[in-house]
Amino acid sequence: MRIVHAANLQLDKDGAHLWNQDQKIHHGLIRLGHFVYPFSINDRARMLSPTGSKTFGKGKANKALLETCRNVHPDLLILGHAQYISAETLGEIRAILPDIRIGLWYVDPLWDEEPTQHLRERTSLLDGLFCSTGGPLLESFATPNCPTHFIPSAVDAGIECHRAFETPEEEIVHDLLFFGRDKGQPDRRAFLQDLRDRLPDLRVGYYGCLDQPLIMGWEKEQIIRKSKMALNLSRRNDVELYSSSRIAELMGNGILTLTPQGAGLEKLYAGDEIVYYDTIDDLVERARHFANATDERVAIARKGWERNHRDYSGTEVARIIVDGISRAGNPAR
After folding, report:
1. 146: DSSP letter
2. What is the pLDDT of residue 331?
3. Where are the beta strands (DSSP E) in the chain?
């Protein structure tokens, strides 16, 4: 099919965010055999603003998307985190192309009401909504014309291209690491401070938190590749199937990943593919164990890596999106 993929490819980051979900889903759509025209929403808004501001350029970006659809005449319009694309623009696109099908994917949390309001305002114009949160929260967005679908965080073999479980012991720089911000998150900061105090005997690396700088791009990949374990810590652990997309970045690069129980991730990952913990005491115990249990650590990390690249690749996520939109009812509304 012919597809316009309107997402945020983050061209302004100069490759520092090469692992973003937008790129992985875009690559997946192409690997499925479709012609996929990229429309990078925020970048286009900046380009069309006299001040380089995406806020001031969003009106022109909407007009540019409308013109793009008019020129490309896509079978599918797939939106990713398209807060700046208005419902009015989607209505105009449907008026020009009455047979088009429109889907939207979203991988931020669904529990924040204000940031997700734009999703509810657009479901009447969508043929499918695809989110990385499951359960009742996801179901609350469904309408008769717009079914909802869960999507896992995607990996891409050309992006998550490392196998940390194969790194020789002499190259290891961290036993455990965590990438993530703690600004404005006092509970996360307190948890990480407690963890640091409890593990003085391990080489623990913190990036973006505890007053340490965040690293990006190739440098971040090398830290993952040269570490034994990584912590997957999301904003909430009690929302069905939700996890930060860091879980894909970590497991996709073959590092043993430790994640808290409570989100039902057991539906996605078996106990021999990832390490689940209950409390900080449990986490400390497991971190110390796997820092020395090399064979067991490598076996679990390898299985987690295999699971992600087999079942949760950008190609498979793109397939869920395309199939979900294609199975939708009559797009003419």
Report:
1. B
2. 47
3. 2-7, 35-40, 76-80, 101-106, 128-131, 148-150, 174-179, 204-207, 227-231, 256-260, 275-277
